[in-house]
Amino acid sequence: MGVVDIVVFFAFIAGVVGLGLWKSKSAHSAEGGAADYFLAGRGLTWWLIGVSLIAANISAEQFVGMSGQAASYLGIAIASYEWMAAVTLVVVAFAFLPYFLKTGIYTIPGFLEHRYNHFARSSMAIFMMIILVGVSLSGVIYAGALPMRDLLVENGVNVTLRQCCWTMGLLAAVYVAAGGLKACAWADLIQGTALIIGGAIIAWLAFKALGAAPASELVDGTGAAVSGLADSAGSVTRFIELNSSKLHMFLPKTDKIIPWTALCVGLWIPNFYYWGLNQYITQRILGSSSLAEGQKGIVFAAALKLIIPFIIVFPGIIAFNLYSKDMAQKAEADFLRSFNAISAEQQIGTMTFKPLDTWVAANPDKAQAVFEYNARVETVARQSGKNVTIKEQAEYKSDSALGLLIGRLIPKGKGLFGFVVAALLGAIISSLAAVLNAASTIFSIDIYHSYINRQATQKQLVMIGRICVGVFVVIGCVVSPLLDNPKFGGIFTYIQEFQGYVSPGILAVFVFGLLNRRAAGITGVVGLWVNPVLYGILKYAYPGLDFLNRMAVCFGLVLVIMFVMGLFFRLDQPVEFKANTTMKLETSKGARVAGICVIVATALLYIIFR
């Protein structure tokens, strides 16, 4: 990194933290209370809400994971997570938000007390605390620190994974602890804008490189060399001709990641849970100054979601066309690193390694060592009765797509490289700050105030929230480096493994509670607790069922159970959601029209890339 890059990088980070602290002065003033700290004084405007939602959402999972999966066989199909989110946000704006703001809640679990009972609220609070601290926090830190370390090391900055974890964790904790949601929202304004600009720069440079590269050096979407591609062909023409197999939204129903059947039901469940019921996202809209401002902000975020695939997914696809050989080398290096790390342990483990046939043919001596180790593992497993897991060598390390694009295409020494790296880091810190803010809010309001100290003052709640931020970030920074263990299996497996245990049940309980106002509170409690049991049974009884369809089955079963219970456990009068706020609750007509336009645009995108 050149001097200018370093100056730009640190100036950006200082500006983000400084703005967050300056704009959040009221949160730590003498008159500042819980509403100021946890919900930004319920004064967020639509443009701040919209950008903040995107900044909290877009992190390494999108920039690294989504671009990487686009580089793999999935191609543009992975964009369903973004384009379906646009439709989901519109529904949340007009079907969920009016109830949330009308009841004056601080947290999403608080809504369940209005509809069901206190036990439903505490049950959801427990589930969300486990997910936020145990899964989301450590997952976001690790998923962000890994590409940041690799990117910096490849460009001459020697840092460790642990150092990256602690640096990002502490940066986020500083302004979250000091200023709460208002600090997050204003910091997100810079970081959200920067990540969109940075993504657009990467996309532009990727298309430019695709058009300039000799046709003989490119591969198509399957990794095969191409013939008949003219050197004079433009970048867009090349993109379409090379990637015809990847420009389709609908994959076979046998696909293990996004089968077309999941687009019907399964993918909607994590979408509605994430955008409508996940505290670290919805906390931004709970801080709206009015219902109209909240709706306009959500629809603005929905419109931004439509452009995200063009600056993340498309560059990932191009990265494979340009750098498939580099991805293959990185996959080989990762496979050998995992094998060397585990085979060097004193005890024989329970994991065997399956190399590619092409690698075996090219590396007979190394392959022999792998096969001998596998034989020892299988012998020990048979004697002990343990199950053996298999780690297969990937043909390509597709998650390296973003790093390759940044490292190869962005010029260094002129400030642009420093800006793009800072934008990526800012996106990660925004998501991390959102998780810290949400986890501290739920603990302070739903656990501490409800069970530990019911007479807690506003200042005491804010102090507890700040203490939680410090405690949680330490937990996340200690746990996150452990996720790099080769035995672990990958961060996305980790996240998917646990989210499914709670999200279908939570969504089912909310949907049922809004549609059926007469079912007794016990139905909500049972719905929340039965989902983890059902999900666990399906996971181990039907391991071939992909996680999205598994979530769809759980969602349906929980609704059926609650419906049957509702026939027997009924209230004398239907639940009425009484207004508990002085906020203006008029619906925005302009946001409604814009929301319809977003839905129509999404449908057109699916038709174009069908």
Task: For this entry, give a set of tags.
2 domains; globular; 71% helix; 1% strand; Sodium/glucose cotransporter; mainly alpha; 610 residues
> How many strands?
2
What is the average of the pLDDT values?
A: 86
Query: CA-to-CA gap between the ends?
Result: 42 Å
Identify the CATH class of the largest domain.
Answer: Mainly Alpha
Integer-rounded radius of gyration: 25 Å
| Poorly predicted runs of 5 or more residues | none
What is the H level of CATH, i.e. the homologous superfamily of the largest domain? Sodium/glucose cotransporter
Q: Roughly how much helix do the residues carry, as a percent range?
A: over 70%
**CATH fold category name of the largest domain:** Sodium/glucose cotransporter
What is the total number of structural domains?
A: 2
The coarse overall form would be globular
Q: Beta-sheet strand percentage? A: under 5%
Set down the secondary structure blueprint.
Elements: H1 3-23, H2 34-39, H3 46-57, H4 60-71, H5 80-102, H6 108-115, H7 118-154, H8 161-212, H9 235-242, H10 260-264, H11 268-277, H12 279-286, H13 291-343, E1 351-354, H14 357-362, H15 364-384, E2 389-392, H16 401-409, H17 416-452, H18 458-479, H19 491-499, H20 503-515, H21 521-541, H22 547-568, H23 589-608
Parallel strand pairs: 1-2
Helix pairs in contact: 1-8, 1-17, 3-8, 3-12, 3-13, 3-17, 4-13, 5-11, 5-13, 5-23, 6-7, 7-8, 7-17, 7-18, 7-19, 7-21, 8-9, 8-13, 8-17, 8-18, 11-20, 12-17, 13-16, 13-23, 17-18, 20-21, 20-22, 21-22
